[in-house]
Specification:
Oligomer: heterodimer
Structural class of chain B: alpha/beta
CATH topology of chain B: Rossmann fold
Shape of chain A: globular
Mean pLDDT of chain A: 96
Number of strands of chain A: 21
Strand content of chain A: 15-25%
Radius of gyration of chain A: 25 Å
Helix content of chain B: 25-40%
Low-confidence stretches of chain A: none
Number of domains of chain A: 3
CATH architecture of chain B: 3-Layer(aba) Sandwich
Strand order of the largest sheet of chain A: 6-5-4-1-3-2-14-7
Number of domains of chain B: 1
Distance between the termini of chain B: 61 Å
CATH superfamily of chain B: Thiamin diphosphate (ThDP)-binding fold, Pyr/PP domains
């Protein structure tokens, strides 16, 4: 069982700054050179409701938060009621004695916050004052944090934090002395690593219409516009988003779009246009529970099969899903390079759990490729010139040659055609591209992550990989995790060796979409499936217990 | 006409179709633009789907043959990708005022520096003559043989309200006049709409009507209110020409100033340096 794990939960209403307190706690742990994983749980509303942030930290690599906490700070009654069940045996629960009665340490948080303007907003600071007191750090540390993280209303925040710290210090019966780790690591969200990965591969413009959970990528690019040099555009709807991105790609400018399932539905006609016109555009599809509006701010993996087949007609497409916040950086960069290499749309498929969780990462930027297309040198340019690979060289305006991209079936020059021979020829060209793209990926790209080398085999994908890895860490079970990174083309060449092995599939949907792919494309028939589809990511403890049964009971 | 614009594509418009007038006006306009110093290699086109869209194949200009209703979005993307380009979107009335109306309104609202030429024939001709957003009430087509029950949109008034900084109406039967409007529109910094009255000889032959009632206005209206009045003028005097033309801040410049993503492309070394700041 994994040692040295400390988990902190802060819960309250929307607008009380629980997420902020979680981020500040994560930064505090990172300062101690510890690894962190932070997950934010919040409903789709601006005020009220129940929000919480959970931060788990360890001196060794950590892939998930835990839903068993050592320190819980409940700012309101609901938080107390919900999270008291998440307290570890020797954990500390601090609650707002103005709002609720209960077991644990009651602090009159509201009577204290009332003394300040923005009484409700200031209460998030409680979480940090209590954390610092529990870690037995002195007020100087607290002051430093307030100055750095809560600088906007610094005097009030300072005084409030001191008051809470003083009220809590003597009441706290248990202190946590967290060991320092070896190296200080940076903490980033999946949305941030996705954005940075795209920037590292040469992204110029990011188009998006706001939709949870993809919006943080738009916000990150926008707020770091000067620092990174990536332009953001927020058009009128997702249809404009995707079509503008294609128009931008036409000029040789690298474009990417971001959305969630509903928005991606609207982008399908443009996705198909990108396939036909051979436009290199990367689509970031951040999943949330569906169908339809579904549950906007929670997580699910219900769009795997949707992502494999969007858009009318037959054309090459790429789909890949990162298994960790770190991998999201490299995979986004890799996909941007691939869509330019093969001039076809690609999808970076992820989930709220990856996009909005925060993790310690160790990223090397120099390994990323810079998306660079092959440029035509021919005297008479033909946009869709037939080549051995099916990939035609590109040319960008301004040039005296004619560049014709076309949504209709076309001849090599890009002029519309209805000629039987040409129609067939262009189908073959696009099919050739699928083959050469698959060959290239086979040769040059890591398509499957494999962790461990013992039976049973656990198939999983996307952010669920992190939950599985942490569950194995927690339980100490020896098993092999097999995570296809690429879903289109599906790496059958890597997966075939896992046929007829004792195996289980873990994914966050109700119909077993990865399982279907494994069966249909590879002939793998897993013995068991663990599916969770309640909008919440797996808790490594729960999942670990389930995996133990597989290990013991077997087939 | 000097035909260094011609392509190998065989023209399949009906003989006498208003689209010929628009094609000829475009060719003339490009020549005139070249005389003003605009280079042909900087002019990019896009079109939607319908009879109008075929202009893409018939003219020797670079661009992207887009999908129904989206050519306005396509050219906005081109302009953002390389603001040195002059971009023209061709669209049918179904494209511009039906399927892609949101793109029109928002392109006008943000004053995107694009020109939209709408081949407005008041019918869906390529799909055999159904009523369109600008069909008159009572217009008979195969999808409603008893007659259209909806009133037509007034696209000029609508787009004036949306914030268009250049609004014009042309007529495919007056090629020189139309080509002058096109030149003016392309040179205008900002969103330019040219709604072109385009007779469809098979499904909505309006030559006789438009020859009678169109009346060239010599110059744009003095102010917005007068432009709206012109746009709403109906009956036996139908104004053609530039209704409205004002200077307004242009979208891409408001967004990123004098930047050009192609010319000012950040090098890999520089970009990686910038990314490292976050790591």
């Amino acid at each position: 069982m994994k040692k040295d794990v400390f988990t902190y939960i802060i819960g309250g209403e929307a607008g009380q700054g629980t997420k902020k307190a979680g981020i500040v706690a994560a930064n505090l742990f990172a300062e101690l050179k510890r690894e962190v994983f932070q997950m934010n749980d919040y409903p789709s509303l601006i005020r009220g409701g129940h929000n919480f942030s959970v931060v788990t930290t360890s001196t060794s690599k950590i892939y998930s938060h835990y839903m068993k906490a050592d320190l819980i700070v409940a700012l309101d009654h609901e938080s107390y009621t919900i999270h008291k069940n998440h307290l570890n045996k020797n954990g500390v629960l601090v609650f707002n004695s103005d709002k609720t009665k209960g077991k644990g340490i009651g602090i009159p948080i509201s009577s204290e916050s009332k003394k300040y303007e923005n009484a409700n907003l200031i209460e998030g600071v409680t979480g940090i004052a209590i954390l610092v007191a529990c870690l037995e750090k002195d007020k100087k540390i607290l002051d430093g944090i307030i100055k750095q993280e809560y600088g906007r209303n610094i005097k009030d925040n300072h005084n409030f934090a001191h008051a809470i710290y003083d009220k809590a210090y003597d009441k706290i019966t248990k202190r946590f002395h967290l060991k320092e780790g070896k190296n200080k690591k940076v903490t980033l969200s999946g949305s941030e690593t996705i954005a940075l990965g795209a920037a590292a591969a040469g992204l110029d413009i990011y188009f998006a219409y706001p939709m949870t959970p993809s919006t943080p990528v738009l916000h990150f690019f926008a707020s770091n516009r000067k620092k990174l040099g990536v332009i953001t555009v927020q058009p009128e709807n997702e249809i404009a988003v995707a079509n503008m991105a294609i128009g931008t790609a036409f000029t040789g400018t690298r474009s990417m779009v971001g959305t969630s399932g509903g928005g991606f539905c609207l982008m399908q006609e443009a996705f198909s246009l990108a396939g036909m016109s051979e436009a290199p555009v990367l689509f970031y599809l951040g999943q949330r529970p569906g169908p339809s509006t579904g549950v906007p701010t929670y997580t699910e993996q219900g769009e795997l099969l949707f992502a494999l087949y969007p858009g009318q007609g037959e054309f090459p497409r790429l789909v890949a899903s990162p298994g960790s916040i770190e991998e999201a950086f490299h995979l986004t960069a890799e996909l941007l390079d691939l869509v330019w290499r093969f001039q076809t749309p690609g999808i970076l498929l992820s989930e709220k759990h990856l996009g909005e969780s925060i993790m310690s990462v160790d990223i090397k930027v120099n390994t990323t490729k810079w998306a660079t297309p092959t440029i035509s040198t021919s005297k008479k340019y033909q946009r869709y010139r037939n080549t051995k690979s099916g990939v035609s060289p590109l040319l960008f305006p301004p040039t005296n040659q004619l560049i014709k991209w076309n949504s209709y079936e076309h001849d090599e020059g890009g002029t519309t055609t209805e000629d039987a021979e040409l129609i067939a020829k262009m189908h073959v060209k696009r099919a050739t591209k699928i083959r050469s793209m698959t060959e290239y990926i086979k040769k040059n790209i890591k398509t499957v992550n494999v962790y461990g080398h013992k039976s049973p085999y656990i198939f999983t994908w996307g952010s669920t990989t992190m939950s599985v890895l942490e569950a194995l860490e927690y339980t100490g079970i020896k098993a092999t995790v097999v995570q296809p990174i690429y879903l289109q083309p599906f790496p059958t060449w890597e997966l075939a060796k896992y046929k007829n092995k004792k195996s289980v599939v873990v994914e966050q949907n109700s119909t077993g979409q990865l399982e279907q792919l494994l069966k249909e494309k590879v002939g793998i028939n897993p013995d068991l499936a663990f599916r969770q589809f309640n909008g919440r990511p797996f808790d490594p403890i729960d999942l670990g217990e389930k995996l133990k049964e597989v290990k013991v009971n077997g087939r | 006409m000097d035909d260094d614009f011609s392509t190998d594509a065989k023209i399949t418009w009906c003989p006498g179709c208003g689209n010929f007038g628009i094609l000829n006006a475009l060719k003339k306009a490009v020549k005139k633009l070249e005389d003003t110093g605009v280079k042909r290699k900087h002019i990019m086109i896009s079109s939607g789907i319908g009879c109008h869209g075929k202009i893409f194949d018939y003219v020797g200009l670079s661009g992207l043959y887009s999908i129904h209703g989206r050519s306005m979005a396509t050219v906005q993307g081109m302009k953002l990708g390389n603001p040195d380009l002059k971009v023209i979107a061709f669209a049918g009335d179904g494209d511009a005022y039906g399927e892609g109306i949101a793109h029109m309104i928002f392109a006008a609202k943000r004053n995107a520096d694009i020109t939209v030429v709408v081949h407005n024939n008041g019918t869906y001709a390529l799909t055999t003559g159904q009523f369109s957003p600008t069909s008159k009430k009572g217009f008979k087509g195969p999808s409603l043989p008893t007659g259209n029950v909806e009133d037509p949109l007034n696209p000029l008034a609508l787009l004036l309200e949306a914030g268009a900084s250049f609004v014009a109406r042309g007529y495919a039967g007056k090629v020189n006049h139309l080509s002058d409007i096109m030149v003016d529109a392309v040179l205008h910094n900002g969103f330019s709409l040219i709604d072109v009255l385009q007779p469809s000889v098979v499904f909505n032959d309006t030559y006789k009507l438009y020859n009678e009632i169109t009346e060239i206005i010599p110059k744009p209206a003095k102010n917005f209110e007068d432009a709206v009045k012109l746009a709403k003028q109906m009956g036996n005097r139908l104004p053609i020409g530039v209704f409205y033309k004002v200077k307004k801040p242009v979208f891409h410049k408001e967004l990123y100033g004098d930047w050009n993503p192609v010319i000012n492309k950040i090098s890999r070394v520089e970009r990686l340096k910038r990314v490292k700041q976050f790591l």
